[in-house]
Amino acid sequence: MNKTCKKCDDEDRRQEATRKRDLELDAARQRKQEAYARELARIQDEAARQRQILKDRSEEQQRETVLRQQAQDLEDLKNRVQRGAAGPTSQPSRQAHQVKQTSVSDSDPDRTDSHDRGQDEVDDRIVDHPDPAPGKSHAKEDWDHQKKFEGANNDALDKLIEMIGLEDVKDRFLSIKARIDTAIRQNIAMEDERFGAALLGNPGTGKPFTQNYESYSSSELSGKTTVARLYGQFLSSIGALPGSYFSETTGSRLGNDGIAGAKKQIETILENGGGVFFIDEAYQLTSGHNLGGAQVLDFLLAEVENLTGKVVFVLAGYNKQMESFFAHNPGIPSRFPHELQFQDYNDDELLRILVQKINKKYKGSMGCESGVYGLYPKIVARRIGRGRGRDGFGNARAMENALSRIADRQANRLRKQRRSGSKPNDLFFTKEDLIGPEPSSALQHCSAWVRLQDLIGLQTVKDNVKALFDTIQYNYTRELDEQPLVEYSLNRVFLGSPGTGKTSVAKLYGQILVDIGLLSSGEVVVKNPSDFVGSVLGESEKNTKGILASALGKVLVIDEAYGLSGGGTGEGGGSHSDIYKTAVVDTIVAEVQSTPGEDRCVLLLGYKDQMEAMFQKVNPGLSRRFPLDSAFVFEDFTDEELRKILDLKLKQQGFNATDRAKKAAVEKLGRARNRPHFGNAGEVDIILNSAKLRYQKRLSKGGKARKTATFEPQDIDEEFDRGERTETNVRVLFNGVVGCENIVAQLEGYQEVVRNMKRLDMDPREQIPFNFLFRGPPGTGKTTTARKIGKVFYDMGFLATAEVIEVSSSELVGQYIGQTGPKTQKMLEKALGKVLFVDEAYRLGEGHFAKEAMDEIVDCITKPKFAQKLVMILAGYDADINRLMTTNPGLTSRFPEAMVFEGLAPDRCIALLIEKMRKDQKNMPTKTTLDISALELADKEFSLQLLSRFSQLSDLPNWANARDVETLWKAMFSKTLKTLGKSPQGLVVTKDIILTGIDAMVAERTLRGGPSTHKIPSRPPGAFAQQTQEPPPPTKQQTIAKTTTPDPPKDKESTEPPQHTEAKDPRDTGVSDEIWQALERDKAAAEAREEQYKRLVEHEKAAREADARAQQETIAKLAQLEEKARQVANEEAIEAKRRHEEARLQHEKERQAREEQVNAMIRKREAEEQRRRQEQVAQKKLREMGVCVAGWQWIKQGGGYRCAGGAHFVSDAQLGF
C-alpha cells in the first residue's frame, strides 16, 4: 500500500475546494447573467406592447384633459359669483394681519410685548414656499426614460438617483449599465472586465440625502461608503459580480493588519459569494508613518488582477491626497479604471440638504422666517457655498456645522426671552437665528468693540476696523437684496513696533468677528514662526497644515511673521534660501484663500520694515492673500498717550506717583523712544518695574512709607534732574582737557537753545544739530569729545543712552556688491539712541564700495527711522574731511556743524604733560612720593629747551599731539621707576629724564617720518631760536657738493646726494652732550633720507622697465589669442573672442595697476626732489650768512638748522621759511 504525504493531501484538498468554489462563483455569475438577459428580453417585449397601449391611451387622455379644464373654468366662475355676494371683507383683514406680522419680524428678536411669538405668529410668518424643483438632472431623466419606456428596474440605481447631487457618479453608473446591457445583447463574456473604482472628492460629498428629503437607511455611513455599497449591489444586480457582500476597512487599519489581515478579508468576501472590498482613505497606505501600508498595497494590486470577476476593489479618498497614492505605482490607475468624482454641492443642493436636515432633526415641525426655502435659508446655503472649490471644503458637514450654530443662536435667544417673561415659540428659526444678527446692531451690544474703542490711542487702527465692519454691514444688506457681495477678507497684516497692542487688538478683533457671526469660535491662537518650521523635509508643510486646520473658526495670530522669510539676506547682504521656511509660506498661500465666508482669520504681526522686506522675497501669492495696502498700522504712542497708559498701569498696580515723578517717567520714555524697536507700552512696564525696586530700596534705607505707595522722581530716574543742572555739566565734563574752550562754548550754546525752547513749549530737536564733522590732527581729543557729547545729548533728553559706538570705515564697507548697503544700515540701527563715531571717515570717499557706504549714510540719516534719533560724527584730518564732503552733494547739508581740533602748541604740550604727571602723582601709594618739581618749577633755560623740542615734535608729520604726550610721560615714568632705591627722595623726575625722553621720541619719529601731508601750524620757537654762544675755533673742515634735482631720474649725475668730507671729530667745544646726541641722530636721519631717495630712484627705474616688459608680453599674448580666434571653427569663434576680450580686460587692469604704482613712485620722487631743492636753497643762505665760521655742513633739526659742529643754530623764521 502506497503511503502519501499528509501535507500534500491537505494542499490538494484545499486547492480542490478552491477550484470548486471558483466554479460555483462562475456558475452563479453565469446564471445571474442569463437570468438578467431573459428578464431583459421579456421586459423589452412587454415594453413594446405597453408603448402601443400608451399611444392609444394618449389620445384618450388629451380628450379627457380638455373636458376637465372646461369643467374647472365653469366652477371658478360660480365661485366668483358667490364671493361677490358675500362682500370683500375677509381678504383685507388677512392682508392687514400679514402686514402686522411683518412689522414684528423686523423688530428685535429679544423684544417682549403683548404680541409674544406663538403658534399663530409662526403660521403667518412661514411663507408657503413650495419645494423648488431640483436642478435639471440628465442622469435622472435618462433613468426615468429607461424605466418608463425600456422597463428597466434596479433598486441600487433608484437609491443613487434619489440622492442629492453626484451627477458624475450617476452618469458613470448608467454608463456601466449600458455597457453591460450592450455586452449581453452582443453575447460577449464579461469575466475579465475590470470594475475597480476610485471614489474621489472633498469631505461631506455624497452624503445619503435623497430628493424626497428622507435619509437613506444607512445614515450613519459617509457618502462614499454609501455609494460603494450601492456600487456593489448594482454590479451584482446586473451580473457583473456573483455576490453583493460588502467588506469595509480603512487604509490605516489595513496597513496595521498587514498582508495577513488583507488575505483574511478577501477570503471572507469569497466565502460569501464575492462582492466589494471597500478601502476608505486609501492614501493612508502610502503615508510616511504607515510602514506596512506599501507592502499591503503591492499585495492588493496582484489580487486585483487575480480576483477579477469575483471581487471588486473600491478605493476612496480626497483628490489631493490620492494623487500621491496613484503615484506610488504606475499600475494603480489601470487597475481602477472607473473614477467617480464627487463634486462639491452647488447652492441649490446645499439648500435642499439644509431643509432635509431641519426636517429630519425636528421631525418636520420647525418653522423658518421667510419659509424653509425662503431668503434666509438661501443666504445660509450661499455663505457655505462660498467655500466651494477649496481643498477640504466640508459640503454637507459644513451644513451640519451651520445648523449647529443656528441652533446655538436660537437657544441663546430663547433663554433671554424666557428670562424676560415672554413665551417664545421653540419650533421657529428667526432671521437672526439663521443668518446671525445685523452687524451694525451686533456692534452696539459687542463688549469687545467697546473695549477696542476704550483703548488708548490706536486711532488709525480703530478707523480701519470700523471701515472693515462698514463693508461687512454693506454686504449684509446686499445679501438681503440677493446681490453679489463686495469681496473682502478677514485676514490682515498688523504692522507696528512692540508694545503697541497688536496682540490685544487681535483678540478683540476675533471676538468681534464671532459676535457678528463671521467666525464660529472666538478663540485666539498665537503662534511664532518656530511653531511652523520643521527640521526635516515635509515637516514644515505638516506643521503648517495642522496649525491651520486647528485654527478653523478661530483667529490665528502669527507673531513676528517676518521670521518666515525663507529668502532673506545675511549680514553682508548675500542672499540665501531656507527651504523649510519657504515651505511654510507656500503652504499658507495654498491653504488660506482669503475669500468671504472663510471660517478662519489669519493675522500676520511684525515690524513694518521687516514685513515689507519679507513680502518682497517670499511667494508672491502671500501679498495677494495679505495685501499690505490694507494692513492695520499701529503707530507708536505719543507722549500724551504714554502718560495716560502710565496713569492706567499705576492705578491697576495700586501705586501712585507725584507729578514730578510722572514728568520724569515721560522724559525717560522720550529718551527710550530713540532706541531701535521702542517698546511703547512695554517700556512703561519696564520703568515701573525698576521704580518698584528703587522705591523698596529707599524704604529699606529708612524712608517713611505712605498708606498709598507713591513713587518719587528719584524712583523713576536716579538722575531725573539732569536737565536742570546742564549749565555746569559741560565744563565739569571737559575739566582737565587742554584747548577745548571753543567746543565747550558751542555745547553750552546748544544747552541754552534747548532750555529756552522748552520754556516756550517748543520741540528743540529741530534746532539742534545731530550730525557733526570733527576736523583735526590725531591726538587732539576727537574720540574723547565724542564720548562727552554723548553725555551732553543724553542729559538734554535726545539720546536713550550716552554710549558711543566707535567704528572705522572698514566696518561700514562691504567686500562684494550688495553687501555695503545692508552692512551700513545695520550699523546705523545699532547706533539708534546713541552716538556713532566714524574715525578716519575720509576713507569713505575712496573706492566704489566706500562711496556706496557714504551714499547709504546720506540717504538714511534723513529718514524718519534715523533722523534726530542718533548723533553721527565723521572724524578725520582737515584736508581729508573737506575732500570727503565733495564726494556727495548731500553731505554738506546733512553735516552742517563742524568742530575744529587744533594741534597742540609747544606750551600746551608742556601744560598737558604737567597735568598727566600731577594725575599720577595723586594716585601714588602713600609710602611713595613722585617729585615732578623739575617740570613744575622749570627755569627759563629748561623751559626754552622743552619748547624747542616740542616745537620739533609738532612739526613732524607723525606727531599725535595729546596721544604722544601721554606716550612721552609713560616712557619718562618707566625710566623714573628704574631709579627707585637709588635716591633717598623716592621717585624723582629729573630734567635729564624729561629731555632724554623727548629727544628719543624726536629721533625715532624723524627716522619714521616723511613729508607731512597733515601738518598743523605750531607756534614759532621765539627767543630760543637765537644761539648766543660764541663759535669756537674750527677743528674740522667740511665741503659741500652741489646737487641738482633729477628730472627725469634717468640722469645719473643729477641724483647724486650731497657729499660730506668730514674730519674725525667735528664737535665744537662747549656743545652739551644732549645737543650733540640730538645732532648725531639728525645726521643719521639725513643720511637715511639720502639712502631712501637713492632706493626710490632705483625702484622707479625698475618699475618703468618692468612695465615696459609687461606691455610687450601683453601685446604678444593678445596677438596670439587673436590669431587663434581667426583660426578656430565658426562654432568656436564666439568663445574664442570672449576669451580674448577677457584677457584684454585683465591685462588692461594689470597695466593700470602698474601705471598707478609708477605714478606713486614719481610723486614720491618729485616730493623728495622738491625737498632737496629747498635744502639746497637753505644751505646756500646759511653759507652766505656766515654764522658758522668753520664752514660746517648744516643739519636740519626741528624748526631750523644746526651746524655739524653743534655750536650754531638758525631757525626757519630767520631763513625766511
TrEMBL record:
Pfam families: AAA, AAA_lid_6. InterPro entries: AAA+_ATPase, AAA_lid_6, ATPase_AAA_core, CbxX/CfxQ, CbxX/CfxQ_RuBisCO_ESX, P-loop_NTPase. The keyword Nucleotide-binding applies. Residues 216-346, 489-638, 768-915 form the AAA+ ATPase domain. CDD domains: AAA, UDM1_RNF168. The keyword ATP-binding applies. Residues 1-28, 48-146, 1008-1071, 1138-1157 are annotated as: Disordered. GO terms for molecular function: ATP binding; ATP hydrolysis activity. Keywords: ATP-binding, Nucleotide-binding. SMART domains: AAA. SUPFAM superfamilies: P-loop containing nucleoside triphosphate hydrolases (SSF52540). Belongs to the CbxX/CfxQ family. This is AAA+ ATPase domain-containing protein.
